[in-house]
C-alpha cells in the first residue's frame, strides 16, 4: 500500500484542517452520555438487554439519514480484530474501555469521522463530535442535532430535577463532556504547567494526557475538559471551558514569545535537531517521536521551518502510534520493529510533503 493511499484512508478530517487557533488547539470534542429508558445501566445490564440495545440501534439509527451528517457506518466491536480496535482508539473514535471491556459494544462512525456514537460503553450511548481547532460551540451544535434525532426515535432515561441519568453520577445532568486538545510546548519549556494545572482544576476543569484519563501528555499535548455536568446548561459549560482555553492560549503565546526573546538560538537549535532526527532517524520510539514532532510543530508556528504544513504533524502524532504502524505494515510488529517502521514512516511522510511542495511550485 502506498503512503498516499494509506493517508487518504487513515487520516480523519480534523487532522488535515486548520480550525480557529490551530497553532495551539489541535481539536475540540463534545461528548453526550445518554441511556435508554427502562433499561439497566451498562454496568448492570444483562446480555439480553445489551443485545436488545444493539438491535434497537440497528433498527432505528443504523441506516438513518441524520441531518447534516448523513449515514453512519455501524461497527460491532466483537467483530473487529484487535488491531482494528486499537486504530479506532488512536483516532479518538472509541474509548479504550469500549475496545477492551465491552463484549456487547458497538459504534457508529460518520464518513468524515467527525461523528462517532459509542454503544454499550459506560453508558448505552455516547455521542461524540470532533472538530479541528477551537470549535466547541460548533461541536455542541452538531452533537445536539444527533441527540435530537435519536431522542425522537428512542426514549431516554431522564429526570425532571436531575436531568439525563447516567451510569456514573459525575455525568448526571447534561451528560456533557467538552474537551480541547492543546499543544503547549511554551508552557512546558518555561516550567509553567506545574502551576497552571492546579489553577485549572480549581475552576472545575481537569487536565489530562492525549488519550484522556490516565494517559501521558505525549508531545506536550494536553486535554482540558469540564468536570461539572449538573447545575449548568450545556451552553454555559462550553462557554466556561472556552473562556479558560482562551486564557491558556494567551499564556502559551506569551511563553513562546518569551522563549524567542530570551533563548532564541537555543530554541532554534532544539527545533532543527528534532527536525533532523525525524528526517534521518532509522529507529525512533513513541516518546522520542512525540517530543520531536512537538518541537517541529513549534518551529513551524514560530516561522523557523518553512514549507512544511503543521497538518502533517497532526497526522503523525496519531499515525505513528502502534496500531496505525501495524495497520500500515499489514500485520503485528514487535516493539523494536515498530520503532524501525515508525522512523521509516516519518521519513517517507516528510519526503511526500517535499514532493507535493515541489510539484506545487514551492521551494522545497
UniProtKB/TrEMBL annotation:
Q: Which UniProt keywords apply?
A: Allosteric enzyme, ATP-binding, Kinase, Nucleotide-binding, Transferase
Reactions performed catalytically: L-arginyl-[protein] + ATP = N(omega)-phospho-L-arginyl-[protein] + ADP + H(+)
- Residues noted as binding ATP in the record, renumbered to the chain: 27-31, 92, 126, 177-181, 208-213
What's the superkingdom here? Bacteria
**GO CC entries:** extracellular space
Q: Which EC numbers characterise this protein's activity in its record?
A: 2.7.14.1
Q: Respond yes or no to whether keyword ATP-binding is given for this record.
A: yes
Q: According to the UniProt record, what class of enzyme is this? A: transferase
- Protein name (database record): Protein-arginine kinase
Q: Which organism is it from?
A: Peribacillus cavernae
Amino acid at each position: 500500500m502506498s503512503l498516499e493511499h494509506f493517508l487518504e484512508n487513515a487520516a480523519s478530517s480534523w487532522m488535515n484542517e486548520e480550525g480557529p487557533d490551530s497553532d495551539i488547539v489541535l481539536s475540540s470534542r463534545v461528548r453526550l452520555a445518554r441511556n435508554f429508558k427502562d433499561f439497566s445501566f451498562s454496568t448492570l445490564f444483562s446480555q439480553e438487554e445489551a443485545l436488545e440495545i444493539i438491535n434497537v440501534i440497528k433498527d432505528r439509527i443504523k441506516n438513518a439519514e441524520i441531518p447534516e451528517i448523513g449515514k453512519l457506518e455501524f461497527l460491532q466491536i466483537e467483530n473487529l480484530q484487535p488491531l482494528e480496535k486499537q486504530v479506532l482508539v488512536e483516532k479518538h473514535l472509541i474509548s479504550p474501555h469500549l475496545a477492551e471491556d465491552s463484549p456487547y459494544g458497538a459504534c457508529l462512525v460518520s464518513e468524515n469521522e467527525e461523528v462517532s456514537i459509542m454503544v454499550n460503553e459506560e453508558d448505552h450511548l455516547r455521542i461524540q463530535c470532533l472538530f479541528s481547532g477551537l470549535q466547541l460551540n460548533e461541536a455542541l451544535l452538531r452533537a445536539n442535532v444527533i441527540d435530537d434525532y435519536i431522542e425522537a426515535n428512542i426514549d431516554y432515561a431522564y429526570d425532571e430535577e436531575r436531568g439525563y441519568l447516567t451510569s456514573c453520577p459525575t455525568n448526571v445532568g447534561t451528560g456533557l463532556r467538552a474537551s480541547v486538545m492543546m499543544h503547549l510546548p511554551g508552557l512546558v519549556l518555561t516550567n509553567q504547567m506545574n502551576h497552571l494545572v492546579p489553577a485549572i482544576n480549581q475552576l472545575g476543569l481537569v487536565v489530562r494526557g492525549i488519550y484522556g484519563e490516565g494517559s501521558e501528555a505525549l508531545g506536550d499535548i494536553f486535554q482540558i475538559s469540564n468536570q461539572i455536568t449538573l447545575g449548568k446548561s450545556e451552553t454555559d459549560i462550553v462557554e466556561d471551558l472556552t473562556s479558560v482555553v482562551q486564557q491558556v492560549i494567551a499564556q502559551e503565546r506569551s511563553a513562546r514569545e518569551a522563549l524567542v526573546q530570551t533563548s532564541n538560538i537555543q530554541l532554534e537549535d532544539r527545533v532543527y535537531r528534532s527536525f533532523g532526527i525525524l528526517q534521518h532517524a532509522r529507529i525512533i520510539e513513541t516518546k522520542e517521536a512525540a517530543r520531536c514532532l512537538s518541537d517541529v510543530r513549534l518551529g513551524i508556528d514560530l516561522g523557523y521551518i518553512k514549507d512544511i504544513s503543521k497538518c502533517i504533524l497532526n497526522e503523525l502524532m496519531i499515525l505513528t502510534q502502534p496500531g496505525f504502524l501495524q495497520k500500515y505494515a499489514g500485520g503485528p510488529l514487535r516493539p523494536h520493529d515498530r520503532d524501525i517502521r515508525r522512523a521509516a514512516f516519518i521519513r517517507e511522510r516528510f519526503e511526500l510533503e517535499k514532493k507535493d511542495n515541489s510539484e506545487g511550485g514551492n521551494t522545497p
